[in-house]
Design goal:
The chain is α/β, with parallel strands linked by helices. It contains nine helices and ten strands. The structure holds adenosine-5'-diphosphate and magnesium ion.
């Protein structure tokens, strides 16, 4: 029996450590020998082309898939994430891309949906207060917690989904493409929210296709390619380095375009300085 660890780990200490995680689906190797560390108060971006294994890795950490081999340490102890409830119980929360919110229910109802075992579940007033407090702490822009989800913007929905996962006091939160469907202002709102979550001392894993968002918020960028680790970068890595690592090519049409654009920007700022 693994001892539960409930205190928040010290900032910078490793919360999660994956060693040589592999996952096969029959003859398909979705993940091969993946190493990954996530520290308290850190945002790790997981990037890679379609089929790189990002979703499979998230599902392994969410307890949806069992790894074929390898070990997972959580707060220094080897753990087995053999079900989604086990992952949640340990403190690994996941916001899947579809958010799974109920359109016709209001913000409070959505926040507490599926948390029926929580002490607030039957007390409407306590739930509303808790909802307000949390959203305020997150500096979330939700006009009223009694508003139905259907009337909220994409950014506000993402906020509600993230807030909901925080109610279980996780130590790690995983976000799958949190800005994929959002405009510029809403994206900024969600990136701010991710920073608030990091300030609370959580480890954040964000999957994103948007390199601008990744650079804006990530402390480390972990590249997967064909189910393997293919490099770890700091957010100031060049687009060319990142794209090369993601695609496996040293030069391709995407990196050439990005470099051309970066070159134009540099010329402009150089001229103005
Ligand atoms: N349930 C599954 N059964 C069989 N193959 C799968 C399954 N899930 C993912 N795969 C395969 O694993 C590889 C990685 O997929 P995935 O994790 O979805 O990548 P990504 O999220 O980076 O696009 C792909 O080749 C995919 O076809
Ligand atoms: Mg995926």
């Amino acid at each position: 029996m693994v001892r539960e660890v409930s205190a928040m780990p010290e900032k910078g200490s490793a919360i999660l450590r994956l060693s040589r995680i592999s996952k096969n689906f029959g003859a398909v190797s979705a993940l091969t020998d993946i190493d990954l560390e996530v520290h308290a108060g850190e945002v790790v971006a997981l990037v890679g082309d379609n089929g790189a294994g990002k979703s499979t890795l998230v599902k392994v950490l969410a307890g949806v898939h069992q790894p074929s081999s390898g070990t997972i340490e959580f707060c220094g102890q080897q753990v087995s994430l053999d079900s989604p409830s086990r992952a949640l119980e340990l403190g690994i929360a996941t916001v899947f891309q579809d958010l799974a919110l109920c359109e016709n229910l209001d913000v409070v109802a959505n926040l507490f949906l599926g948390h029926e075992l929580s002490p607030w579940s039957l007390d409407e007033v306590a739930m509303e207060v808790r909802a307000w407090t949390l959203l305020k702490e997150l500096a979330a822009r939700i006009p009223s917690v009694r508003q139905p989800i259907a009337s909220l913007s994409g950014g506000q929905r993402q906020t509600v989904a993230i807030a909901r996962s925080l109610l279980l006091n996780p130590k790690i939160i995983m976000l799958d493409e949190p800005t994929a469907a959002l405009g510029v202002a809403q994206t900024a709102e969600v990136l701010n929210l991710i920073e608030r979550v990091r300030e609370r001392g959580l480890g954040v894993i964000i999957i994103s296709h948007n390199m601008e968002d990744v650079r804006a918020v990530a402390d480390r960028i972990v590249v997967l390619r064909l189910g393997r680790n293919n490099g770890i970068f700091s957010p100031d890595a060049s687009n060319q380095e990142l794209v090369a690592s993601i695609t496996g090519a040293t030069e391709n049409s995407v990196s050439r375009r990005l470099d051309r654009k970066a070159g134009q920007h540099n010329d402009l700022s150089g001229g103005a300085a």
